[in-house]
Automatic annotation (TrEMBL):
PROSITE patterns to which the protein is assigned, alphabetical: MOSC (PS51340)
One GO MF term attached to the UniProt entry: molybdenum ion binding
Organism annotation: Nicotiana sylvestris (Wood tobacco)
Protein name as annotated: Molybdenum cofactor sulfurase-like isoform X3
Segments forming domain MOSC: 184-354
Superkingdom of this protein's organism: Eukaryota
């Protein structure tokens, strides 16, 4: 522009690997450095994109908790509950057990998809963990509070956290080895002995939530996804025309992402803006988006990685940020020791949140 008149145009080209985020970076660059807006229009435009929210008020109660899922053994199937206790490490018994190979490797579905066949169920009244596998004729029961099956103690470092773990007798290890088709051992976190590791230079380790007690989770105590975000992803998958191995359009459910919590209400990806949450009087802090990997391409019903690499490929096209593919948010439970210790989450509770109004 020269004296208010356009004098030319600039062409911007993008490659086939360019993403929506790349386009928006350039648009923001132009707006921030070359576009002068009237104060009235600017205020209207910004408010329509991100309306400011102050505090966690009732006006924000457009979301509800629709699902609670507990995963007792890392990378094995979880079970749903209408209500479940909260502890200082997250949901009670969530990811409290792991399977370890004979070489010391922690096993996950990335390398052992058969782990998704192991179903779990905890009965709090009976105090037992029930396990089933199509590869095992007999069901397995593990006492939650009894050490009758535990045979030893050890310490191990996993993802910059140190844990004191218990091992089980040979009968338990044989059952799991048969269930996944390879030798392995079952280990349980003893609980209070886990703590965050700090590197020699004083910086925290790889795990994002260095300020909380964790069981065998990758980054944080909780993962939350929303039904609206799942629906938007499925719409994009359908538009892409990608087919599964059976010839059907690829569609995914919330459980493909192994969330602890599923929310409903509001717009797709509204959870991206949440910073603090109140779920039925229990408070949580968002630690940001969850970085997704090829594990979400594993079909829990078939136990195999889909050949078309979906839904990760579609997510990579519009949910990439700083080299990561984000879907869902990570949460920390803000456990106040002054409050009662018997806090429970319940399906149907309202979710109040305050977003980032900056």
């Amino acid at each position: 522009m020269l004296h208010g008149k356009p004098t030319g145009a600039i062409r911007v080209s993008f490659g086939y690997m360019s993403t929506f985020e790349d386009v928006m970076k350039f648009v923001n660059f132009v707006e921030n450095n070359f576009v002068i807006l009237s104060s009235n229009w600017s205020a209207f435009h910004l408010s329509s994109i991100s309306p400011p929210v102050e505090g966690i008020g009732k006006a924000a109660a457009r979301h509800f908790l629709t699902s609670i899922t507990v995963y007792p053994i890392k990378s094995c199937a979880g079970f749903s509950a209408n209500q479940w206790p909260l502890t200082s490490t997250g949901l009670l018994y969530d990811r409290e057990w792991i399977l370890k190979s004979t070489t010391g490797e922690i096993l996950t579905q990335k390398k052992v998809p058969e782990m998704c066949y192991i179903t779990t169920l905890i009965d709090l009244n009976l105090g037992k963990l029930f396990l089933e596998s199509p590869r095992c004729k007999e069901k397995l029961q593990i006492e939650l509070k009894s050490n009758s099956l535990a045979t030893g103690r050890d310490e191990m470092d996993i993802q910059n956290h140190r844990y004191e773990v218990r091992s089980y007798n040979n009968e338990v290890d044989i059952w799991f080895s048969n269930a996944i088709g390879r030798p392995c051992t079952l280990l349980r976190n003893s609980g209070s002995q886990s703590y965050s590791c700090i590197n020699k230079n004083g910086s925290p380790g790889m795990c994002r939530d260095v300020g909380a007690k964790l069981n065998f989770v990758n980054e944080a105590q909780f993962l939350l996804v929303s039904e609206e975000s799942i629906a938007d992803l499925n719409s994009r998958l359908k538009s892409n025309g990608r087919k599964s191995t059976g010839g059907q359009a690829v569609q995914v459910g919330a459980m493909r992402f192994r969330p602890n919590l599923v929310a409903s209400g509001g717009e797709p990806y509204a959870e991206d803006r949440w910073r603090h949450l109140n779920i039925g009087g229990k408070y949580f802090t968002s630690l940001g988006g969850c970085n997704r990997c090829q594990m979400i391409n594993i079909n829990p019903e078939a136990g195999e990685v889909q050949r078309l690499s979906e839904p990760l490929a579609t997510l990579a096209g519009y949910r990439r940020a700083k080299g990561k593919i984000l879907f869902g948010i990570l949460l920390r439970y803000e456990n106040n020791t002054k409050t009662k210790s018997d806090a429970w989450l319940r399906v149907g509770e309202q979710i109040f949140s305050n977003g980032d109004s900056n």
